[in-house]
Specification:
Elements lengths: L7 H18 L32 H17 L14 H8 L5 H14 L25 H14 L5 H6 L11 H11 L2 H7 L11 E4 L28 H9 L3 H12 L11 H33 L2 E5 L13 E5 L8 E4 L8 E8 L7 E5 L1 H4 L4 E5 L2 H4 L6 H4 L3 E4 L11 E5 L5 E5 L4 E2 L4 E2 L3 E8 L5 H4 L10 H28 L5 H11 L7 H18 L8 E2 L11 E6 L6 E11 L4 E3 L3 H8 L12 H18 L14 H14 L4 E5 L2 E5 L3 H12 L2 E6 L3 E6 L4 E11 L7 E8 L5 E7 L1 H4 L9 H10 L3 E10 L1 H16 L4 H12 L4 E12 L3 H10 L3 E5 L4 H10 L8 E5 L5 H12 L4 E5 L1 H10 L1 H8 L4 E4 L4 H15 L2 E6 L5 H6 L2 E4 L7 H5 L2 E2 L6 H40 L10 H8 L4 H5 L9 H6 L4 H5 L6 H25 L8 H23 L5 H20 L6 H4 L2 H28 L9
Parallel strand pairs: 15-27, 15-31, 27-30, 28-29, 29-30, 31-32, 32-33
Antiparallel strand pairs: 1-8, 2-3, 2-4, 4-13, 5-11, 5-13, 6-7, 6-12, 8-9, 9-10, 14-33, 16-17, 16-26, 18-19, 20-21, 21-22, 22-23, 23-24, 24-25, 25-26
């Protein structure tokens, strides 16, 4: 199909139309299903109920045409023939035309859907029974794949005569065009429809129909399969040993050590003691297996605790209909099944994804409960959930079984912020009630109040929590990969040396045996002690980190990654609980001409005392007179046009303050709850709690907040004011505002209050000259701003609104948009009341920590599940976004073309922070992952809001693949576990959201501010120390290999060891190990310098401490020193009458020991007592070995000045040139830290 470039107007509006279609296609949060034209029940939308036919009316045809018009825009402005269209005649022809257009439309929509499936938001497909079409032979592959999606839409059009004539005669077995259109639109947007047919035949992607209570049990209890069991383990009993060993031997040096150890089982290849080869390898493997076994056991214990927790499952009553304890069964969480009706009590974990059937709040009123979702989305705000309306009104729990209801639930998917389903009563004329997110409790959330009766919808791997979880994996650090690479280079050198010796000897006789023996003799070039030394060093680093007073409470849960702390290039952080305390505090109240802060809150208190008029008659006369005098003073001042500062005398500002306090007290969803004698404020948003606490500070108390009333009390007056809630418009991410229509119980005045973001409120309030400026001022201070406005309604205005609202509420098609349109009739010419500024309290030292990390070269991203506005405010207040930096937002974009355009525009910007929301992020990850990471990684910072756990992990994975830098992730909630486990370095914070993040992390700290010492100090030391330790251990092995090679070459290519096995064991252990290992406590700079000059960290990110250049320098030193030691030892003993292989071995080995000790001493930056002890101990141990090993050392020769002089000459020739070269290099090209010491 040829597609030319479209008309400018069509292409320009395509993204907007797609977005509008996504909003309009949904039936709404809780639509009512009513009877159709032919008297069919509202349940015609249901699963096989009320199949009837109604011809479309003129408005329905208009809606249908509008729907197809959106198809036209979403799929690039093509008409049904695949050509670009400049008019809408083709769309009109589709709706009003006959069957001649059907085949064209089928083909075009199917192919267009296949082409443009990338517009999808990722919603799982949905399929209806008996509605799948078997493509004919001439259907294309794409049509075959997508045909199931559009059969519902196309089939009624075959009855073209009915549509053309407008006949109302029924068509047997047909579903109405209107119904099919609504079916497609009720759950999926057009971009989602494009994807729907791709794998519609997969049962996993089909919607569920669940019988309430599990249907006919055929007895008292059902057979349970354990399908809800949680398994977070990496291995089982059978796979543990082979998989762990496989993971270990994926590293080349471990495989090499195994090969060398096994070769010693062959007598012809044995060149030393077998234990000297097997013991170090077995030690490393035992340590690794023990750590893995302990971790697996801990995971098993946690899983068992969760799986064995028992819940009450309701069973059908024994006949009296009232139910008793015998009608319940205690069932472990692992055995719960779909359809089970369970009871969840306060503070209990929700065991599966469930539908809330009946809610029993703590205060005994209402149909809502609060849940804590911190382990799901990372937010500590309590979320309100409401029960299904029908089941909430039932008399008892056992009546649930008598209802014989069914629940239609969407196919399992990862989306945690959305849900669509239906509650259906087939026996009651197909009664149906729409279900949305507010009716659900996802697994791993916790019931925060009351108790609930709920039905299980999804279990096990189908729950949102498990679908967003990632399997535990074994991480290998960059340092390990670098060592593995260097080991391979050393192996190549080993092979070259062995081949060289074999070639010089000649390819005759058993040359292959000599080749293998040469390789075994030179195998010290890859020292097996390298693995042992590094593992022991990691334990030392862990001990130092855990016992550092600058990081109290730090726990190192994995000792494999201390070096990775010194290489971090990206830091990905959660917001709530990590950067912020999620505790809001009121800061400012702006009334236009007057600004109140916490410093002059007493002025507000004086006005609040008179907010509800005169004091009650029960008050004392003296107090009454005082209040009356104040009231008269204020009202007298208010009658003058003068407006003064809030710090001045009372003025007409009294009216403004009164209106502001009432608006704040009414426009919220805060519920006061009395539990255990204490009063708590429960809300879905902490800023609402902060504002109500502000009211209480100034003397206005929220007495109660129900679905029907709001009661406020003026404490000073001992009076209450009751406002009846008539209508309420909840806050949504799309609307960015909430509204409420209330009626004063005393005066009868009807008022519409609204609060929201300034970007939305600016369009619905009357003209003013201060809203934009003052909101900008508060936002620059990092405060979360809310704009309050009101409009007083006359009775006639309210009646008209109520009538239109009811009509829209009963509308079955495009209901959500219809309700929004009616709501907008109220949002006109509203009176601007005030602006509030609320601060989200940061964790201690967040600003200074972020500043230091930026100077250290880290690029910091904030990934949060919170709203865009909240995330942006925190980014500003925490100084993640500096004053000199701009912000670029990509928000709410689902169109591939639009998101690519915005991404290209962002790439052209400099020094700009990227702001992206979850929807746009998913579009970027689906279509432009590489381009997105390339652009975002160049930004000084990035903020991603409404991020799911999977998206967080995906960002980490992309950054690791495309940036080439180490990625660290820090969080404190269960939703951060995926990100933490995927990162190169995972850091967890235990807090209000539990211990999941802390337990899953490699490092656990108690505060974000502890990152500075953890990264800049311990990360630096761990990496540099391990790098030097590795280089010295490799130097120690390479130098002995060079000595062996030179020895074999001098003595006619003999394949024999130059040194005895015992002294080789001592060489790798007590003679040199302690001085080399003492490097793990060396410091090149002090903590004060590392903390004051975080720029020093940038050098570590380049990996220069263990790069190829440093490795080659080490190789050069080893080759030079090994050659000099053996050649000079032979030269100075050449004419000696005492010349023998024993004396040669003694002289060269003694010079080797002194060379190693001197080289370590020259390398130390800051001497400590343990280093001196290690050097002295090694010398003493060597002297004792000379005395003990009489068959190895000739004591009569050793303890002479002549012998000592020869050893001294060899040592000086070996060390002086190397030491001089190091001195000159530090003199003329000093490292960065040397300039500060």
């Amino acid at each position: 199909m040829m597609v030319s470039s479209g008309a400018p107007g069509d292409a320009r509006h395509a993204p907007a139309e797609a977005d509008a279609m996504r909003r309009d296609s949904a039936l709404g949060d809780r639509p009512e299903y009513t009877r159709g034209h032919a008297g069919q029940a509202a349940g015609e939308f249901g699963y096989g109920y009320g199949y009837g036919y109604t011809s479309p009316s003129a408005p329905e045809l208009a809606n249908t045409e509008n729907l197809l018009h959106n198809y036209y825009n979403v799929f690039g402005g093509r008409n049904i023939s695949g050509e670009r269209s400049t008019g809408q005649s083709s769309l009109h022809r589709i709706v009003h035309g006959g069957s001649s257009t059907v085949h064209e439309m089928r083909s075009t929509l199917a192919l267009d859907a296949a082409t443009d499936a990338s517009y999808s938001r990722g919603t799982s497909p949905r399929v209806y029974k008996n509605q799948l079409h078997s493509p004919s032979s001439h259907d294309s592959g794409d049509e075959s794949r997508h045909w199931a999606t559009y059969k519902d839409l196309m089939e009624p059009m075959n009855a073209s005569s009915s549509y053309r004539s407008g006949s109302n005669s029924p068509a047997s077995g047909m579903i109405s065009w209107r119904t099919r259109m609504m079916r497609l639109g009720s759950n999926l947007s057009l971009p989602q429809l494009a994807r729907r047919g791709r794998d519609a035949t997969d049962p996993k992607n089909q919607e569920k129909v669940i019988a309430l209570g599990g249907g006919d049990l055929g007895g008292r209890s059902r057979k349970r399969s354990g399908s809800n069991a949680i398994n977070n383990r990496k291995h089982n009993v059978v796979t543990f040993l082979p998989l762990v060993l496989l993971e270990q031997f994926r590293m080349f040096y471990n495989l090499f050590f195994l090969f060398i150890a096994l070769s010693q089982l062959i007598p012809a290849l044995r060149i030393g003691l077998l234990s000297t080869y097997l013991a170090p390898l077995l030690f490393v493997l035992c340590v690794t297996l023990t750590k893995e076994a302990v971790d697996e056991y801990k995971r098993w214990v946690r899983d068992r605790e969760v799986n064995n927790y028992e819940y009450d499952v309701l069973l059908p009553s024994r006949g009296n209909g009232l139910g008793d304890d015998r009608d319940r069964e205690r069932v472990p969480s692992r055995n719960l099944s779909e359809g089970d009706i369970i009871v969840i009590n306060i503070n209990e974990r929700v065991p599966a994804d469930v539908l809330l059937l009946r809610a029993f709040p703590s205060d005994g009123s209402g149909d809502g409960l609060f849940i804590r979702t911190d382990q799901l989305d990372g937010e500590t705000d309590w979320k309100l959930r409401r029960a299904v309306q029908y089941t909430q009104k039932l008399d008892s729990d056992t009546a649930l079984f008598q209802a014989q209801a069914e629940v239609t639930a969407e196919a399992p998917r990862r989306e945690i912020y959305d849900f669509m389903g239906k509650f259906i009563l087939p026996e009651r004329d197909g009664y149906a009630e729409a279900l949305s997110l507010e009716n659900t409790l996802w697994a791993n959330t916790v019931l925060a109040s009351g108790h609930a009766v709920a039905m299980v919808m999804y279990v096990g791997r189908e729950t949102r929590t498990m679908m967003n979880a990632s399997s535990p994996r074994t991480k290998v650090g960059l340092f390990e990969h670098e060592l593995n690479f260097l080991s391979k280079v050393l192996f190549v050198a080993l092979a070259l040396f062995a081949l060289t010796l074999t070639a010089l000897r000649g390819w005759y006789g058993d040359w292959w045996l000599y080749l293998f023996r040469y390789m075994l003799l030179l195998s010290y070039i890859i020292p097996i002690s390298l693995r042992v030394n590094l593992d022991m060093a990691k334990l030392v680093y862990a001990y130092m980190i855990e016992h550092d007073d600058k990081i109290p409470g730090c726990v190192v849960r994995s000792t494999d990654f201390p070096e990775e702390l010194g290489r971090v290039g990206f830091l990905l952080s959660d917001k709530t609980g990590t950067l912020t305390q999620n505790q809001m505090a009121f800061k400012k109240l702006h009334l236009g001409a007057v600004l109140f802060t916490r410093d002059n809150i007493s002025d507000i208190q004086r006005h609040a005392e008179l907010i509800f008029g005169a004091r009650s008659p029960n008050a004392s006369s003296k107090g009454t007179e005082k209040v009356f005098a104040q009231e008269q003073e204020i009202r007298a001042a208010a009658s003058t046009p003068k407006v003064v500062s809030a710090k001045g005398n009372p003025s007409r500002v009294f009216n403004a303050v009164q209106e502001a306090l009432v608006a704040i007290g009414v426009t919220h969803n805060v519920t006061p709850v009395e539990e255990n004698g204490s009063r708590e404020l429960q809300a879905a948003s902490p800023d609402e709690v902060a504002l109500i606490q502000f009211l209480e500070t100034v003397g206005i108390e929220l007495v109660s907040r129900t679905a029907t009333t709001v009661q406020l009390a003026a404490v000073a007056q001992d009076r209450t004011r009751t406002l009846n809630v008539l209508y309420e418009f909840p806050f949504t991410s799309d609307a960015k505002r909430m509204g409420i229509v209330v009626q004063d119980a005393e005066s009868g005045t009807i008022t519409f209050y609204c609060k929201g973001a300034d970007s939305v409120m600016d369009r619905i309030v009357k003209y003013n000259d201060w809203l934009e400026e003052e909101c900008g001022n508060l936002a620059r201070e990092g405060l979360r701003t809310l704009v309050f406005a009101k409009r007083t309604l006359s009775q006639d205005e309210f009646d008209v609104f109520a009538q239109r609202w009811e009509q829209a509420r009963l509308q079955t098609f495009n209901r959500k948009q219809a309700l929004a349109d009616v709501q907008r009739t109220l949002e006109r010419d509203m009176q601007l009341i005030c602006i509030t500024g609320v601060e989200d309290k940061l964790q201690p030292n967040v600003r200074s920590t972020l500043e230091k990390l930026r100077h250290a070269g880290l690029r910091i991203w904030m990934l949060t599940g919170d709203k865009v506005e909240t995330a942006t405010c925190v980014a500003i207040s925490s100084c993640l976004v500096e004053r000199t930096q701009s912000m670029y937002s990509i928000v709410g974009v689902t169109n591939r073309l639009q998101v690519s355009t915005q991404l290209a525009e962002f790439q052209r910007m400099h020094n700009s922070v990227l702001i992206v929301d979850g929807v746009s992020l998913q579009t970027l990850l689906d279509h432009f992952p590489s381009e997105f990471v390339a652009a975002a990684s160049q930004a000084p910072a990035a903020v991603a809001s409404r991020c799911s756990p999977v998206q967080k992990a995906a960002i980490v994975n992309l950054l690791k693949k495309h940036s080439g830098l180490q990625v660290a992730a820090i969080g404190d909630g269960g939703n951060d576990v995926n990100m933490i486990q995927e990162a190169n370095v995972g850091i967890g914070i235990p807090g209000k959201e539990g211990m999941q993040a802390s337990l899953a992390a490699d490092f656990s700290i108690t505060s974000f501010g502890h990152l500075t010492p953890l990264l800049l100090w311990h990360g630096r030391n761990s990496y540099k120390r391990s790098a030097r330790l590795a280089l010295f251990v490799m130097h120690r092995g390479l130098i002995i290999a060079i000595i062996q090679m030179v020895y074999s070459a001098i003595f006619f290519y003999a394949a024999v060891a130059v040194y005895h096995s015992w002294i080789m064991v001592g060489y790798a252990t007590i003679f040199t190990m302690f001085p080399i290992f003492s490097l793990v406590i060396d410091e090149d700079v002090s903590f004060v310098i590392a903390d004051t000059y975080p720029e020093l960290y940038r050098e570590l990110q380049k990996g220069r401490s263990l790069n190829l250049r440093q490795f080659l320098i080490m190789v050069f030193k080893s080759v030079y020193q090994g050659t000099v030691i053996m050649v000079f030892s032979v030269y100075i003993l050449r004419d000696d009458t005492y010349f023998s292989l024993m004396n040669l071995s003694t002289v060269s080995f003694s010079a080797l020991i002194f060379t190693e000790l001197l080289m370590i001493a020259f390398e130390i930056n800051s001497w400590k007592l343990l280093m001196i002890v290690a050097e002295v101990f090694s010398m003493v141990a060597y002297l004792l070995a000379i005395l003990v090993l009489s068959d190895v050392f000739n004591k009569s020769v050793i303890f002479t000045w002549n012998f000592f002089g020869r050893v001294l000459v060899v040592t000086l020739v070996s060390c002086l040139p190397v030491t001089l070269g190091k001195f000159l290099r530090r003199k003329f090209s000093p490292p960065a830290y040397a300039k500060l010491t």
